[in-house]
Amino acid sequence: MRIALHWFRRDLRLADNTALHAAARRADLVVPLFVLDDRLLRAADTGAPRVAFLLDSLHALARELGDAGSQLIVRRGNPADEVIAVARAIGAEAIFVNDDYAPYGRRRDADVRAAAEAAGLAFHGHAD
């Protein structure tokens, strides 16, 4: 496969990242993406410290990716819309993710998987 999209969520790391390593083995180019999900950002249990930690972690990931010759794409909005839009824009053939086991994460991932399949994109979830 020529281009794969790796969608980061809770797994903001390069080392020991099952889906990222699978994408790197199968694609010539892996494009990293993170979507700031308004539903999570506006949740009752999401306070300023949690958002600050997330942003700090994203900055660290972006630096690490930059050092490796890549660039983190960050979008904000509905994950199903944003992931598919980025995948189409870069010409990706597949989306790689580490499975999320939380109730909201499972519903979100099912929505993104359905949107990917409707767009003709493979969606590869990995236990991690």
Task: Please provide a written account of the structure.
With 128 residues, the protein is an alpha/beta fold. The chain has five helices and five strands. The chain has helices spanning 18-26, 38-41, 48-67, 79-90, 103-118, and strands spanning 3-8, 29-36, 73-76, 94-98, 122-126. Helix 5 (103-118) links the parallel strand 4 (94-98) and strand 5 (122-126). Helix 4 packs parallel to helix 5. The two termini are 22 Å apart.
Briefly summarize what is shown:
The chain has five helices and five strands, in the order βαβααβαβαβ. The chain is of the alpha/beta class and 128 residues long. The two termini are 22 Å apart.
Give the neighbour order of strands across the main sheet: 3-2-1-4-5
In whole angstroms, the N-to-C terminal distance is: 22 Å
Give the helix proportion (percent range).
Answer: 40-55%
- The overall pLDDT, averaged over residues, is 94
Radius of gyration: 14 Å
Gross geometry: globular
Tell how many strands the DSSP assignment holds. 5
Query: Helix/strand/pairing class, anyone?
Result: alpha/beta
